[in-house]
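User: Hey, my collaborator sent me this sequence without any context and asked if I could get a structure. I don't really work with proteins. Can you help?
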Amino acid sequence: MMKVSIVGSGYVGTTVGVCLADLGNSVWNIDIDEGIVAALNEGESPIHEPGLDELVAEHAGRRFRASTSYDVLSETDVTMLAIQTPSNPDGSIDLSAVEAGVRSVGEALATTDGYHLVVVKSTVVPGTTDERLVPILEDSSGRTVGEELGVAVNPEFQREGSAVADFRDPDKIVLGTDGDERAATLLRKLYEPLVTGETALVETGRREAEMVKYANNAFLAAKVSLINDIGNICKELGVDAYEVADALGEDDRIGERFLRSGVGWGGSCFPKDVDAIVQSARAAGYEPAMLDAAVAVNNEQPRRLLSLLDEHVDVEKKRVAVLGLAFKPGTDDIRNSRAIPVLEGLRDRDAEIVAYDPVAAGNMRERFPDIEYANSAPAALEGADGAVVVTGWDEFGALDGAFDAMASPVVVDGRRVVSRREGITYEGLTW
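Assistant: No problem. I've predicted the 3D structure and written it out in structure-token form, which is a compact way to encode the shape of the chain:
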């Protein structure tokens, strides 16, 4: 058993914390939000994530506890930073919360004895840990990194909607320790239960570990945009893009994952990370043309979705159902959801919008309080003159007869979850 503290109780911090507790470790989660801390200690997860509610309920108050105080760091051997790094207007990352967290960690460690490892799981551009965070940590703790303190970079690769499963069965675990054997030994021990024959353990430098996270997300974002671009071409040429993608996926140099063309990517990682690495590249004097193109294609997909609707319905003063608000199925996260530009476009067209999502409607209501929210997909479709599918929830694929209740059964499917059939005017975004 290891004793671990985690600063930050968002998607990453909560999932990593409770999953480490599930492996038998003693974990403290630290957060400035008293409501989140109280909920965690009562066994309630503050986020929607499959499998997480059960784990929090099982381990809260025992191996998994939460606090607003950094004093609990003295009871642990390893502290992980899982603090958000949101985007600035220019695309760079805002480090203010991470830097404040590092300073608080240093102050808490100033009066402790023995070696303590600080692990950066927050997504930061290469060089941030060494150039920005280490000086703050040393200044606030009065201790020296490499002697009384260890610093490592350990990026996470957990997808919202499958974060628990991704933690338990990772493709890779990346340890950036710059050759600090004490840090590497602690992290190897921590992750030992997860390292099987199918999991790659990558040991590298801190800057390299920081870059792996950005390179990973940038590559996947570009892959999605490339298949969307190919899908757009297929649409214009009367070709089924999904049959083309199935054939592409048989090539082991390409692989089948991330080849579902549609309305594009969103969420908290891809947009932010692509923007950040593009901004960093430009600051270094390099123009990342491929990533610029990936962003441009992604930004165009919601507009293409609405243009297909325009071909069949003049939506002004007409009821339009928007099915799906979360950026992907399995989560209530609406950050950079493709539903946002779709809703904005429909509002610009003066449509009467009715939206539905199984779990994300409450979050979207905070951003769009003036539109109607239905309590079910059939209720959203009833009397609608058009419908757009933005999130690929499985339940939308089972609607079928609910489309018959539309005033005009025009369906533009951005995720290929609805089946074509007689009685529906169906348009796929890229097929």
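In plain terms: The two ends are 52 Å apart (CA to CA). You can pass these tokens on to your collaborator as they are.
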